[in-house]
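Bug #77: duplicate submission created two jobs. Keeping one. Sequence:
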Amino acid sequence: MYEYINGTVKRVGPEYVVLENNGLGYQIFTSNPFLFSKFENQNTTIYTYQHVREDILALYGFLTMEEKMLFIKLLNVSGIGPKGALAILASGAPEQVISAIEGEDERFLTKFPGVGKKTARQMILDLKGKLQDVVPDYFPNLFQEGKHQPVSGNEELVEEAALALKALGYSEREIKKVTPKLASEGKSTDELIKDALKLLLK
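Kept job's structure:
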């Protein structure tokens, strides 16, 4: 089991980043890979979780240990797999997720892809009162860290954001509904993803 990997970010895509360490390139799936754009070709540490199944061996990565802890707790809920857990973390507001669990707000929880009423109820049953070690104060707003410089080619960035949303499990219909509202200039891909998720969770 890898606790973390320190290396150089070599590639950033809609689903994963590639982190090079000692000549090996690790494919690491994250909730919002474009957050790592600011670390491209730089040395950085990614906290990792190795997921093993009969047909898959995958690494999932996080900027903070607390985010990783919440991911693991979500995986322990029946009905939530790695992809679903990443989609929940991608909201960039884990304190809202924790608040919804503690307040038994099924309506909020069912807004995430792959989370129906049954899974939302299971999340509440399994996690309510058990997240004391994942307190909101330890979670930085991941989308606020390291603002990018304004960029041009907004259409291409919106397309990248749409691909990332699709990788998280949102449908084409849901994505097409929000992407026209993302046409403001001067925003980076991770900021556009944040804006889209806010719209999707309304």
